[in-house]
Amino acid sequence: MRTASAAIIAMSLIAAQAINSNSEPHDPEQIINEPCEAAAVLTTIAHNMQATLSQQLTSNKQLHKRLAQATAAANSNNGGEPSIAKAAIALLPSLAKAHAAEAEQRLTKSKTALPGLVAAANVSGQQAAIATIADVKVKSTTLGNAGIASVTASKANLQFEGAASNGFAKFHSKIHRAKAAYATWATPAKLGKYKVFTIKTASASTTSDAAPGVGDINSDQCRVRQQTVTQAPLTGTNNHLCVAGGAVLTTPAVTLDATTTPDYGLAAEGDYKADNPQHSLKQAAINIMQAATELDKPASAFDPDKLSSYIGDDTFLATVGYIYGKLTPEQSTGTAKPRVLELITTHFGTEDKFKEKIWDAIEKIKVSKNVLGARIDLTIKDVSDMATAQQISLQQLIDSKQKTMCEATKAEGNTTDKATEPPKTADEFKKHLTEKPCKDEKGCDFD
Questions:
Q1: Of 141, 243, 312, 420, whose CB neighbour count within 10 A is largest?
Q2: What confidence tens digit (pLDDT) does each residue in 249-272 have?
Q3: What CA–CA distance (Å, rounded) separates 56 from 72?
Q4: How much is the pTM?
C-alpha cells in the first residue's frame, strides 16, 4: 500500500510539473514585458534567422557539378556511344533551368531576409541598452547637516544607482525556460504581436511632492519637503537634509501588432521620420516579418541524381519528346505525354536505375588529352565546375573542326583531274558518228 501511494504521489508530481511547464509563456507576446526580455527574444530571433539564411544560401554543389558534366558530355560521342551524349543534351535544359532558379532564389532570400535580420539585431541591441539603464535612479543620501551652508564638500552631490552590468541577467532564467520554443520565434505566426520599449526621463510632478526630491530625515526616513506621504528609507540623523531617491527614467512600451494591420500600424503614423521611435520600431517589425516570411519558404531541393526531379519539369518532357520522338512541346506535355514517359523509361531508365544508367555512364567518358594546349588525362567524372566544362567543350569543337578540315584536305588530295579531250571539229564529229565503234555503242547509222 505504501509503495502504491508513493507511486501515485510521484505520478501526481510529474503531472503537475507537466501542467506547470505547459502553462509557462513560450511566445514573444507572452514573454516580453520588460526591455531585457525583448532583447533576449530578438537576439534569439536574429540568431535563428542567421542560421536559417546560411543554410538556405548553401550552394547545391551536386547540381552545379551535374550541369558541368552534362555540358562537357553534350559534345562527346563517348567513344562511339552517342546515346550518352544525346541523353546529356536532353538533361541540359532542366539542369540549367534549376541552376538559374537556385541563383534567383538565393538572391531573393538575401535581399529580403538581410534587412530583417539586421533590424532584429539592431532592435535587440537597443532593447539591451535600455534594459541596462532602465533601473537607474537617484540614490537616497544624507547631506550630513541640517543647514545647507554647513554641508561639507561633495555631500550635496546627487548620486545614482541601479545600472545593470548585464541587461539580460534579470530575466535570463525566464527566457531559458522557453528554450524549447526558440525555433518557432522567427516565424510569421509568432511575430504577429509583441512589445518593445522606448526610454525617456521621468516627468517631475508640478502639483505634488515626488521622489527623487529634497527633504529631511525623520525616523530613518528621508521625507520630501518634510511630508510623510513621500519619503524613502534612509538611516541618518533627524532633521539632517537628505535626498529621497527615485527613478529618473521610464520605459514606455510600444506594441507591435500586425494582427489588425499588416504594417503594424506604420501608415497610420503619417510621414515616416527616422527619429520617431514609433516609426523606426514599426518599420523594423515589418522588415523582421518579411524576413521571417521569406525564410519560412523552403529552399529548392532539385536533386540532379533523381529522375523524378526531371519528370516534374515540362522542359524535360518537351526536350525528350523532341529528341527521341520528334514531338512538339505541346504534344510532349499534352496528349503524347504517356508516350514521352515511355521514352524516358527506355532511354533514361527508372528512378532507382537512373544514376547508374546515365550519370555513371557520363562520368566514364574520356576527355581529350589536349585541352586548350594543356596535356591532361581525365574523364567527365573529374569535371565539377563550368569553367572546366566549357574548356572541354571548346576543345571538342576545335577537334571536330580540325577533323573535318583534315578529311576535306585528304579527299581533295586523292582526287585527280581527268584530262579533257579537245573538242572535235565538225568533220571529225561527223566522221565519229559514221564509224563502226559508234554504231556498236550507240546504234549509229552509216550515211
A1: 243
A2: 999 999 999 999 999 999 998 888
A3: 28
A4: 0.75
